[in-house]
Records
---
Amino acid sequence: MTRSSAAPAVPASTGRGVRIARMVLVVVGVALIGLGGWVLTETVSPTRYGGLLVWLMGAVLAHDAVIAPVVAGVALVVGRTGRRVRPAVLAIVQVGVVVGVVLSLVVVPEIVAKAEGTGNVTVLPFDYAARLGVAWLVVAVLTALAVVAWVVRARRREARRTA
Amino acid sequence: MRNARSATVLGRLLGLAFVVCLLTGLYSHFLQDPASWMRFPTSPVWLYQVTQGVHITAGIAAIPLLLGKLHAVFPQLFQHPPVRHPVQVLERASIALFIATSVLQLVTGLLNTYQWYPWPFPFREVHFALSFVIIGSLAVHIAVKLPLIARYWRARDSYDDEGRFVEPTGELDPARAEHEAVRELARMRREAPGEQPSTPAGAAPQPRGFVGRVTRWIDDARETEREPARARVSRRGFFGAVGASTVGVVALTAGQSFTPLEPLNAFGPRQRGLGPNDLPVNRTAAAAKVLETAMDPDWRLTIAHGERTMTFAAADLEAMVQGDERLPISCVEGWSQFAAWRGVRLVELMALVGAPADRSLRVTSLEEKGGYRVMLMGPEYATDPATLVALEVNGSRLDIEHGYPARMIAPGRPGVLQTKWLSLIEVI
């Protein structure tokens, strides 16, 4: 990597092995990107490229402009209002919420796909909306139990210390 | 938790998941689209069931891992200035390419398991092409970050005795070094009382209000947590959330592919044992337009070897010696299920027309059209004694949805190649 007087562009290599590994990775990486591009042009009609590009950019926008800011905003609000709550309790609740949200991300498209209609009755056979509701309930109960268990243990620990 | 160690830990897991997806995906691709010289193992019979189950499961596990990874590095999207060096244009371009392709890959892969295709491009071809772009851009990204990854590979090199993250040197993280230099400059300027209150030329003015709050958040997110105990809790919370959600989505969906998780299958798109003959269905007889031809009493299976041609009515096949095999139906969409098949061993039919052992077969279905109407079968499957022209499954005659009057079932092949509603078998 370049060692100019200004700050380097990327992390500097720490030895010869690292330098060689980086070179190999870049060459292999660029070759694979090229291979993917070539496979695409060989197998997909050019009339589809526009739609694909829109979906690729949409994927980045959906994350960078919707999901991430919402998560950051929620974290900011919770961090402010949650100053009176113990950090560990906050962390446990956060685990529960994230589990519920990730499950929903996977299951909501399933609900929509089922509503759109399936090829036969063995595809998407369950009532996914009802099951998702139950899953949220279970997550909420487990989270509450974990919080209670943590608080009880913390109080005991403090009582022992003051005794 | 937004530090190079977290990024390394999550990156490792995500990289592993993507490489597993690539390898199992390539295996599935070449099973369906082999080069002429390729031969595949027919044993163990559950090989494809496992590789494809792993493919789908690793893909689902990658969803929370990718979200966690992106969350850990999100503030770096807004680094200021956006580009300090020409090499960085390429670095940031490779990251943009990686994020775009990997998010799209996971979305289309997941929806494909639901058989829902709301996009304006072909799934299979794009999923295949993008897999190389993902691994390629990942390799470039790893190359850029390699010194940092090596520095924070082990936990004990990453945190001090009190659990405080050990910051990288400026050489290892130039963006961070510059960020700190700018901060330090601002602090010095604030503390210098004789300084003019107006903003000096060249320095960015401190934005106020909402924008100011957001920029401060981006700045603070790069700062080290001052209290080690609080930092540890936040770190554990973060990894707990990523870990629990990964375990959660895998446990509640993978029962469609893996027996131990069957009782937990709450959200899988398929349920084992559900369907005609206690078996799920992919392509139906109605969709294949074989409702009449398959039920025709004049149906015949033709087997051709050059000039030698034999035809079999359903009753002829039923009268032959029957073989029993327990083989899985393993769908490319991830679900799979073992079933008890009974039918005529393919090797015996081949012997009747005097087919040599090293020949491939072209197998044609009653289907009028469709990508899998004609199936090529390599000699490794054609000569395997477990391969059946199946007439029964799970103790009763094949349902029309499962290929009545006769279907192919061979060990270790994707379900789309287990041709239903057989019509013609040619030795080629």
Note: Chain B touches chain A through 95 residues (CB under 8 Å).
---
Amino acid sequence: MPPPNPVPVFRARALSRRYGRGDAEVRALDAIDLDVAAGEVVFVAGPSGSGKSTLLHLLGTLDRADSGTVEVEGRDIAALGERERALLRRERLGFVFQDFHLVPVLSALENVEYPLWIAGVGRRERRERAGALLAAVGLERRADHRPRELSGGERQRVAVARALVHRPAAILADEPTGNLDSATGRAVLAQLLALHREHGAALVVATHDAELLADAPRRVTLRDGRIAADERVGAPA
Amino acid sequence: MNPFPLALRNLTRNPRRTALSLAVVASGAAAIVLTAGFVRFSFDGLREAMIHGGLGHLEVAVAAEVGRRSGGTLDRAPSLGGWRELRAEIERLPRVAAVGANLHVMGLVQRADGAAVSFAGVGVEPDRERAMGFVTKLRAGVPLPASPPAAGADVAQLAVGLAESLGVDVGDSLTLLTARADGMLSALDVRVAGLFTTGVAELDTRLLKLPLASAMRLAETDEVSNLLVGLDDTRDTAAALAAVERLVAGRDPALAVTPWPERAPFYGQVRDLYLGIFAFLGSVVVLLVVLAASNTLVMTVFERLRELGTLRAIGTTPAQIVALLLAEALWLGALGGALGAALGALGVAGLNALDLRMPPPPGAVDPLDLRLAYVPEAMAGAALLMLAVLALAALVPILRVLRLRVVEALGHV
């Protein structure tokens, strides 16, 4: 077994993000310190408005902090321009969104292929890797279907496959079960965790679903933009 | 990453809006094709009407006379000697259909009762003019005789305005009076063989034509004012000009060869006017298409902000987003432009089939045929222009998307 990577996938220090100005200012995140190790699974819990999504956006280089730093695999993202951030996301990060966010004019297979397509991977390799991941989430028979022809659970499984197809160092999942019924949500999360174990990517899941949090190996609870608790229930998955 | 296949699929999201955009672009391209067809037909028609209305493709005259007179006038003095031999030499050149001699005479034309008005006359060779494809718009009577009339049997054709001011008609007798080179007056009795129009009202008030032999009898000269060279094809003008210039080089007195555009400043003025109108209309069309297409593209992009945010979130670079949106605009431009070019061609055929006429322009006599030319370069140009126009129209939505933060786009509803 290879030795654990001493450089965390994410390192946040004194991370703050505010919205609005003056009396209307809201501190979405307030001086957060957080490390996520390579291959680690972290569930970010907290009520709506506690800053879960903001934290994931900042870790995922989708937004810029007002103060503090974020490092992704040791790289300070504050120094990166839009193109460099896009390349970092394309190569090292995967995203799963609550609303699936699939491209409606692409088939399930093409949606999974998309990260490889923009990276310039050849068609044959794209098809093979995307096809294998679609099969892993049980959708090989739905490969040619457009998103509107898929159920919510199927769409999120396509999104999970898309998040993993380029072999990222970390996956950021923002309320991945939020638009699914509980059974489907559990099934999708189980698949996400299984694929995480297989691929070794770190996984950060934001959720306020208490049922999902029950088995979380590490649970970071946010309240009013601050870390209220950081609990390690067991060994990393 | 080749953005065009995905861009084409994106156009299928909202077929009605895509169809509307295509219609706007196609209308713009078709408008350009139709306008270009109208302008080209007008240019060609005016050019050929001037050339075959008596201008000829080339004029050969004594250089000093050309320098003394402004181009295109009908008052060159009889100064070209040895013209029959010169004409034979020019007619042997390739691309030359025929060469006709002209003798310009000016003076008074007098009715039997003594009433007189001034005239500008030109002695012509009707057989040569016919060989050059010259057309006289005869309103009454008969054409001038092909062979030179005998002395005492001279005839003339009067422009309709001149005949009207004199109050004469076909068959009436007139006396032409002119001043010879030595200052003495000379007279010639002619019978009105026919009435014609030049198509220009002002010219119609003073012009008359008579056979070259009659004009020579009137002016008592064997020299002519100039030789007019008619070509098989107007496009050969430059080549024929060079050939005739080589032929007459070094002659004494020096001869000048003048191509038709230099003798037809009116053509240049009309051309500049039409091109100005065309450029203005083209600019309006381009502006309308840019505004309409830009509006559509902005709507298209705004509806997809979340999706575009997602694409950026999963690693699509700003340049790739630009390429994708630009490709969508270029598809619209290419498809709309091609459709517009085809519709324009159909429109040309349709309008020509209707055989419409327009009122005479100011100063002209005859109504104009509303006909349009097929201008392949305008069709290709309109299609290409629509590509550029759509690329321009895409700037607004592209800049909007690039300014938007990814997280804002993701949260867009």
Note: The first helix of chain B runs from residue 4 to 10.
